[in-house]
Amino acid sequence: MAILSSLPPVIRVPLAGIVTWLAPGLGHILIGDRVRGLILMITITLTFWTGVAVGGVCDTVDPANQKIAFMGQSCAGGHMIIAWAWGASLGRGVDAPHYTRAHWLSAETGVVYAGIAGLLNILVILDVLARADAEPAPQGGRDSKKRTAAQPGVPPS
Amino acid sequence: MTTLLAALFTTPITLSGPQHAIMLAPLCLAVSVVYKAVSAKNLRRLPLDAAVLCATIIGGMYAVGIGLWALYRISVG
């Protein structure tokens, strides 16, 4: 499943970052770190969508009224795009047909959850960039540093 | 079924004050799990390490909150 490992670093590293931005954890899975990738994917997805469930899709991802929080949320890439498009399709404003205004406490909680999920994805993107930049390993192992050290002639980092 | 699932995200949940405070725990757990998953070399210790970090964050935040509240009560009288 280490699809990206066969690519040259100049393609592998940015591609891993873009893929991780779109779907948190997927970059780790594609470079062969499946368990870590799944843990990150499940955690960030649950955090983001818990925020949307608490605050409502219209109030949580709202670039017009929550500019600073939206910057954080936008780091969650694919999730933010889906939630933003969903909120836009329902319409924003009091007269919109499906609009249910969240209580301020719920709205704040939802915005913070989705924003933190986005900020956590920055950490995941930086990690996948470092791992993708490391020497690709032979089949099997999970820890890239151990695998690099095990290769003859390659000094451990 | 799809409508019911969609309603989960389109209808906001109304939180009370104590519920708002309880919502701190899952958020801290998510931060702990992601931080430990990124930094840990061995993922077998992840549940324990994440639980310890989560408890530390929550305990620290409540300690700061109680400390500030006590300071406020002392200064106001």
List the helices and strands and how they pair.
The complex is a heterodimer of chains A (157) and B (77).
Chain A: H1 9-22, H2 26-30, H3 34-55, H4 57-60, H5 67-73, H6 78-90, H7 104-133, H8 144-150
Helix pairs in contact in A: 1-7, 3-7, 5-7
Chain B: H1 2-10, H2 17-22, H3 24-39, H4 46-76
Helix pairs in contact in B: 3-4
Describe this structure in words.
Chain A has helices at residues 9-22, 26-30, 34-55, 57-60, 67-73, 78-90, 104-133, 144-150. Chain A has 157 residues and is an all-alpha fold. Chain A is built from 8 helices and no strands. Chain B has one domain. Chain B has 4 helices and no strands. Chain B has helices at residues 2-10, 17-22, 24-39, 46-76. The longest helix of chain B is centred in the C-terminal third of the chain and has 31 residues, at 46-76. The A-B interface holds A 35-36, 39-40, 43-44, 46-47, 49-50, 52-59, 86, 90, 98, 100-103, 105-107, 109-110, 112-113, 116-117, 120, 123-124, 127, 142-143, 145-146 and B 8-17, 20, 23, 26-27, 30-31, 33-35, 37-38, 41-43, 46.
What is the radius of gyration of chain A? 19 Å
Number of strands of chain A: 0
Beta fraction of chain A = under 5%
* Portion of residues within helices of chain A: 55-70%
Number of domains of chain B: 1
Look at the helices and sheets of chain A and give the structural class: mainly alpha
Largest sheet of chain B: none
Helical content of chain B stands at over 70%
Tally of distinct domains of chain A: 1
* Rg of chain B, nearest Å: 18 Å
Mean pLDDT of chain B: 91
Using the alpha-carbon principal axes, give the shape of chain B: flat
Listing every helix as H and every strand as E from the N terminus to the C terminus, the arrangement of chain B reads HHHH
* Number of E-state strands of chain B: 0
**Oligomer category:** heterodimer
